[in-house]
Design brief:
single chain; 236 residues; mainly alpha
Length: 236
């Protein structure tokens, strides 16, 4: 049997690397194309967790003993407090779902904008006349600009903080009412009334933050597209 000589030619430097002596077989591997495919694949895979939350609702965690189990309130107070919690449960699910959606996209945009900021100056020094190298830099710059533009346009960080804070503030009130109702007033009636007022205040704060953080078409048009990191042209 004749000898075998497998050679791999790297198109970036046109060097040959014999693997098995004897067989004349060349395989072209473009390092820039591999890097581009890896970048696109990694960007899509890491985007999946953020996209998945768009099509599902995040359930509330078990809350433990409720107002109905408390020995600190009479039957009428328990009924009012329990009904209030049942009415706000849908709102809590919405807050938690929205917070999770914004949190995941915030992490995604933070990671990839950081990656592009660090990698583009390095790639600018390594770029060659190879079209694949220019395509890689262009894709990284465009991806960073799109991600940053979406994050700014939809005010991802501000919305995440608003929904997460609203959920946290409500449960702080809820636990405080269960554990230390006396901080809300001297009598049971005062405690229940003050608690309900605080809950309504939390809802108004989150609702105001949600509407304030919703960009209008005019604001997006005035802001224009996000500035992408400059793509070097490289030697021609």
């Amino acid at each position: 049997m004749a000898g075998v000589d497998v050679k791999v030619r790297l198109t970036s430097d046109n060097t040959y690397h014999p693997l098995i002596a004897g067989l004349s077989w060349e395989v072209d591997i473009n390092g820039w194309a591999v890097a581009l495919s890896g970048y696109v694949g990694a960007a899509m895979v890491t985007l999946y967790p953020a996209l998945r939350t768009l099509f599902r609702v995040v359930n509330l965690n078990p809350g433990g003993p409720s107002f109905a189990d408390s020995s600190r309130f009479g039957d009428e107070a328990k009924k009012r407090l329990s009904q209030n919690f049942e009415r706000i449960q849908g709102t809590l699910v919405f807050w938690k779902t929205q917070a999770e959606r914004y949190r995941r996209f915030h992490i995604y945009s933070l990671v990839w904008v950081t990656v592009s900021t660090v990698s583009l100056p390095i790639l600018a020094q390594a770029i060659t006349p190879d079209p694949w190298s220019k395509a890689l830099v262009t894709v990284i710059a465009a991806h960073a600009a799109l991600t940053l533009g979406l994050s700014r346009g939809f005010r991802v960080e501000a919305n995440y903080k608003a929904f997460r804070s609203g959920e946290s503030d409500f449960y702080d009130l809820y636990r405080r009412m269960l554990d230390r109702p006396e901080v809300f007033g001297a009598t049971e009636a005062e405690q229940v009334q003050k608690y309900l007022e605080h809950v309504e205040m939390v809802r108004r704060v989150v609702r105001t933050a949600e509407t304030d953080n919703l960009p209008s078409i005019e604001e997006v048009a005035q802001a224009g597209p996000a500035q992408a990191p400059r793509s070097p042209s490289g030697p021609s």
